[in-house]
Amino acid sequence: MNQVNNDQIRQNVRGRYKEIAIQPVENSSCCTPVSTNSSCCESPVDFGDISAKLGYSSEELASVPDGANLGLGCGNPQAIANLQPGEIVLDLGSGGGFDCFLASRQVGDTGRVIGVDMTPEMVSRARSNAMKGGFANTEFRLGEIEHLPVADQTVDVIISNCVINLSPAKQQVFDEAFRVLSPGGRLAISDIVTTTELPAEIKNDLDVMYSSCISGASSVEEVKAMLTKSGFTNVAVEPKDESKTFIKDWIPGTEIQNYIVSAVITGIKP
Fold it and tell me: Who contacts 184 (Cβ-Cβ below 8 Å, separation ≥6)?
């Protein structure tokens, strides 16, 4: 894919998530049923219900500021990251700050959480949410996950929730993740992987499918190969068949659950 197309994809994704960021909370969800018009959803969505299906507990959902949970995602990276007090955590594609605020509770006052998002409106929303919730150990930086605004070897754990599939340069994302992790640091993300070849009409639909976490997805073997090439060890990509129960609602009428599933993706920097 050439650079012009890469930029086109980034602009498309940025524009879509800008729209989500500035919408009222009750109508902000993507990676859930979407229409082909300018609105992300045609009716209000229960974000708490969506997130519960993704594996978040009622306690987790109640602990974040209103407006942080935008119903975006395909899993719960908190459940696999095993965060410890004092750790420095980086969230790739932090959105409204939902996963960052949950991580903040786990790492405590001696830890720190950094969220990176390429959409200015999302960063502003997350910063506002952090102020509302009093999350002093959490910060949000504007930047692309292919060019992380983070110093070398300064992060203990990287989390991400249904974001890396949106990147047109996934190998570069994993290379950057490896760069910023300290030796012994770990990657623990939830993302979408393909289980079979996507039909051309889905793969090439930039306006709806790519920014809805679908046509940019890679296969299990492709993800493993990219992580290994970046230098990660103990690489594991574990598809979750149960995710089909919520994926089937993402793009009604497409049977998209026959082509993609959510996966738990982990790796260690030696």
Answer: 268, 269, 270
Backbone angles phi, psi at 239, to 5 degrees: -65, 145
Are β-strands 260-268 and 181-194 bridged in parallel, bridged antiparallel, or unpaired? antiparallel
The number of distinct structural domains making up the chain is 1
Partners of residue 157 on adjacent β-strands: 89, 186
| CATH number for position 107 | 3.40.50.150
Cα 171 to Cα 167: distance, rounded to the nearest angstrom: 9
- Domain region containing 131: 3-268
Q: Model confidence over 191-223: pLDDT tens digits?
A: 999 999 877 777 666 555 555 557 678 999 999
- Provide the 8-state DSSP code for 46: -
What is d(CA 264, CA 190) in angstroms, rounded to the nearest whole number?
5
Calculated CA dihedral for residues 197, 118, 35, 195, nearest 10 degrees? 20
Q: Which of 240, 62, 84 minimizes the C-alpha distance to 162?
A: 240
Can you list the positions of beta strands (E) in the chain? 88-92, 112-117, 138-142, 155-161, 181-194, 218-219, 233-240, 260-268
- Whole-angstrom CA distances from 112 to 138, 152, 189, 215 are 6, 16, 18, 33
Residues 27-59: pLDDT tens digits? Answer: 444 444 333 333 333 344 555 566 666 667 667
Cβ 263 vs Cβ 55: under 8 Å: no
Tokens (6 digits) for 213: 């976490």
Asked if 93 and 72 count as a contact pair (C-beta separation under 8 A), the reply is no
Buried b (16+ CB within 10 A) or exposed e, 99-137: bbbbbbbbbeeebbbbbbbbbebbbebbbbbbeebebeb
